[in-house]
C-alpha cells in the first residue's frame, strides 16, 4: 500500500523512478523499464525521435524510465533491437503478460534475449497498458535468473506487475503536459461506486451496500469511466485516486 501511495503522491518523474526501484527491491527483481509504445502497422517504436542514442538519465525526458545499465540501453538503441525484440512484438499484439522464460524456450537463439542475459537480464515479466486516447506503454521487471517456485507464484508476480504498471502509467500521465486537463464533474453516486470499487467490491456487492440495483451501479461506473477518459473500471479507479476524487 505504501508503494501505491508513493505513486499517487509522486511530484516528479525522478520520484516515480525511485519508487520503482523500491518496488523492485521488495519483489525480488533487479531491473525495470517503463516505456511508451508507438505501434503503427508492422512498426513498433518507443518514442517519436529515435535518431539519437540516449543514456538512461536522458531517456526520462521521453517518459522512458529505467534502471537498466547505460551499456545495455545504448546497445539496444544502436542495434535497433526493438524491431527484433520478441517481448515487444508479443505485448504490442496482446494484453496478456509475457514471461521471458517462455519466450526464451520458444526461441533459444534469439539475439536480443541472448545479449540481454549477458547484461544481467536473464528473466522477467512484461505487461502492456492501454491508456487514454489509445496510447500504449509497457512495463518490464527483470533479474538475472528465474526464481519462481511454482506456476501460481509466477501468475501472482504478473498480477502484481500489472497492478503496479497501472499506477506508474497514471503517475507519469499526471505529470505530463496533460495533467491540467479538466474532466466533467463526477456525481456523488459515481464517486461512491468508484470508492467501493477501489477496495475490490464487485458491482453486485456495491449494489447491496448502496441499496441500489446492480444495473444502476454499472451505469454509474460506466459514466465515471467515460468522464475520466479511462479505458476500463480499474483505470478509472486509479485515475480517480490519482486526482484525489476518492480516498485511497
Report on this structure.
This protein has 248 residues and is an alpha+beta fold. It has 2 domains: 2-175, Beta-Lactamase (2-Layer Sandwich); 188-242, Winged helix-like DNA-binding domain superfamily/Winged helix DNA-binding domain (Arc Repressor Mutant, subunit A, Orthogonal Bundle). It is built from 12 helices and 6 strands. It has helices spanning 2-9, 13-27, 56-59, 70-78, 86-91, 100-106, 111-118, 151-175, 188-198, 203-210, 214-227, 233-242; strands spanning 31-40, 43-45, 65-66, 98-99, 123-130, 136-143. Strands 1, 2, 3, 4, 5 and 6 form a 6-stranded antiparallel β-sheet that branches. The longest helix has 25 residues, at 151-175. It starts with a helix and ends in a 6-residue tail after the last helix.
Termini separation: 9 Å
β-sheet strand percentage: 5-15%
Helix content: 40-55%
C-alpha Rg, in Å? 19 Å
What's the number of extended β-strand segments? Answer: 6
- What count of structural domains? 2
Instruction: Identify the CATH homologous superfamily of the largest domain.
Output: Transcription factor LuxR-like, autoinducer-binding domain
> In CATH terms, what is the fold-level topology of the largest domain?
Beta-Lactamase
Amino acid at each position: 500500500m505504501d508503494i501505491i501511495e508513493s505513486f499517487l503522491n509522486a511530484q516528479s518523474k525522478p520520484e516515480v523512478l525511485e519508487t520503482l526501484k523500491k518496488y523492485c527491491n521488495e519483489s525480488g527483481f533487479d531491473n525495470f523499464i517503463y516505456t511508451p509504445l508507438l505501434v503503427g502497422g508492422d512498426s513498433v517504436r518507443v518514442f517519436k525521435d529515435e535518431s539519437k542514442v540516449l543514456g538512461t538519465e536522458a531517456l526520462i525526458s521521453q517518459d522512458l524510465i529505467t534502471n537498466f545499465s547505460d551499456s545495455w540501453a545504448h546497445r539496444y538503441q544502436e542495434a535497433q533491437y526493438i524491431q527484433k525484440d520478441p517481448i515487444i512484438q508479443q505485448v504490442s499484439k496482446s494484453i496478456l503478460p509475457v514471461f521471458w522464460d517462455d519466450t526464451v524456450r520458444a526461441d533459444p537463439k534469439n539475439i536480443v534475449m541472448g545479449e540481454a542475459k549477458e547484461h544481467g537480464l536473464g528473466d522477467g515479466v512484461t505487461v502492456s497498458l492501454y491508456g487514454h486516447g489509445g496510447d500504449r506503454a509497457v512495463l518490464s521487471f527483470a533479474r538475472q535468473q528465474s526464481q519462481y517456485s511454482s506456476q501460481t507464484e509466477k501468475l501472482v508476480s504478473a498480477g502484481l506487475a500489472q497492478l503496479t504498471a497501472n499506477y506508474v502509467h497514471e503517475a507519469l500521465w499526471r505529470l505530463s503536459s496533460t495533467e491540467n486537463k479538466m474532466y466533467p464533474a463526477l456525481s456523488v453516486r459515481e464517486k461512491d461506486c468508484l470508492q467501493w470499487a477501489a477496495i475490490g467490491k464487485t458491482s453486485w456487492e456495491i449494489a447491496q451496500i448502496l441499496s441500489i440495483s446492480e444495473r444502476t451501479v454499472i451505469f454509474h461506473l460506466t459514466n465515471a469511466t467515460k468522464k475520466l477518459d479511462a479505458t476500463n473500471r480499474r483505470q478509472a479507479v486509479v485515475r480517480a485516486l490519482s486526482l484525489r476524487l476518492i480516498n485511497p
